[in-house]
Write a structure and sequence with these properties.
single chain; about 400 residues; alpha+beta; Immunoglobulin-like; MetI-like fold; 2 domains; 6-stranded antiparallel beta sheet; 4-stranded antiparallel beta sheet; 13 helices; elongated
């Protein structure tokens, strides 16, 4: 009987111990995320994934200030389009004033012919509603004194007309409803659009390097250096470039974020696709050419089908890179807590949400952000499982 040498025993135990440590780490990670998000899970349940809200349960007036000779009312959530002249009354020294208004998403600009010194009062009806038809919590009144400089509102007060009590902006997070449907949509849309933009270019680069150039050519060396350089640039540099070059041209929105993401993931996609195409045996290519097939036919009928599983694996790894990107996306996506209705609407991803709000979060909000991170892990895992299924299906099709 041949005994295993000591080195084999050590190697066997080290590998087993490493695998056990990895499993324990995964279990500890998932357990800690679930534990720290337990209060959010208990309070919101499945509505955390389905409700289109990350604000207070009711419409809330948060601030009033003066800008460009207009009184600007800031709300916690976007207002619905309404006839605000029937819902808001403006007074100057107890005399009603006519006004016009501009609804700008989270704020309402009230314009009068001329703002002069004196006490202004705004009375707002509780029938005012937001985009989700949530009403204002109560009939409220704001009053403030405008000075000659017209730079600031002094002594602002928001009063509940029913109780005649001063209202402070609600900071109790137990009254807030957190849910991440807008951020799930933003995460998936930005990543998939970026993948749609980046991968055709990446495949073209990979085909150029593997089928149309020699491995020892200068072009091959140049592209390899460029790919490695782009892959090594920190994401915040891409974000700064997008902020100063793309945002002034396209705005901070979903399209800009997807464009920055596509440029970021392109080197990874090109490198992985190139490695998959390198694995295609030369005998298959030479056989196709010997039978009279054109270069295009060899690529489309032999090379790409043979490398299909490797290319799909590259797509999934690239998608995982896009799903978790944080800083670059945060700087250019606009960070609006709403589901985008077009490519040029501001949006927000789960990663950018956590980056923006975790530093000041506590209590229920912190628990909700941790649950959002756990949901992002689940989304990434689902895409990974879907990719494994597609790769297995592609491998079976290739072998038949």
């Amino acid at each position: 009987m041949v005994k295993n040498p000591l080195s084999d025993k050590i190697t066997n135990r080290v590998t087993r111990l490493s695998a056990l440590c990895f499993v324990l780490f995964v279990i500890a990670l998932v357990t800690s995320l679930v534990w720290n998000s337990s209060s959010s899970i208990k309070k919101f349940g499945f509505s955390f994934l389905t409700q289109n809200s990350w604000n207070t349960k009711f419409l809330e007036l948060s601030r009033v200030h003066l800008k460009d000779n207009s009184l600007v009312l800031n709300f916690s959530v976007p207002l619905n389009d309404q006839n605000f002249t029937n819902l808001i009354t403006l007074y100057h020294n107890d005399q009603p004033l006519a006004f016009s208004y501009i609804n700008t998403n989270l704020s309402l600009s009230i314009n009068t012919p001329n703002l002069v010194d004196g006490i202004y009062k705004i009375v707002i009806s509780s029938n005012l509603v937001d985009k989700n038809n949530n009403k204002l919590a109560q009939n409220i009144e704001w009053s403030g004194n405008i000075v000659t400089e017209k730079q600031q509102i002094f002594s602002p007060q928001i009063i509940d007309l029913a109780s005649n009590q001063k209202i402070e902006p609600n900071t109790d997070e137990n009254y807030r409803h957190f849910s991440i449907l807008p951020f799930i949509v933003g995460t998936l849309l930005s990543s998939l659009i970026a993948l749609f933009i980046a991968f055709p270019v990446a495949i073209a680069i990979a085909l150029l390097l593997t089928q149309y150039t020699s491995p020892k050519s200068r072009l091959m060396k140049l592209f390899t250096i460029l790919i490695d350089l782009l892959a090594g640039i920190p994401s915040i540099i891409y974000g700064l470039w997008g902020l100063f070059f793309l945002v002034p041209r396209f705005g901070a929105n979903l399209f800009t974020a997807s464009l920055v993401l596509s440029i970021m993931i392109m080197p990874y996609a090109a490198s992985l696709s190139r490695e998959a195409l390198f694995l295609v045996p030369d005998k298959l290519k030479q056989a196709g050419l010997a039978l009279g097939a054109s270069k295009f036919k060899v690529i489309t009928k032999i090379i790409l089908p043979y490398a299909r599983s490797g290319i799909i694996a590259g797509i999934l790894l690239t998608l995982g890179r896009a799903l978790g990107e944080t800083l670059a996306v945060t700087m250019v996506i606009g960070n609006r807590n709403q589901i985008p209705t077009s490519l040029f609407d501001p949006a927000q991803t789960i990663a950018s949400l956590i980056a923006n709000e975790y530093g000041e979060a506590s209590g229920l909000k912190q628990s909700s952000l941790i649950e959002a991170g756990f949901v992002l892990i689940i989304i990434t895992l689902l895409f990974s499982l879907l990719g494994r299924f597609i790769i297995r299906y592609a491998s079976k099709s290739k072998n038949q």
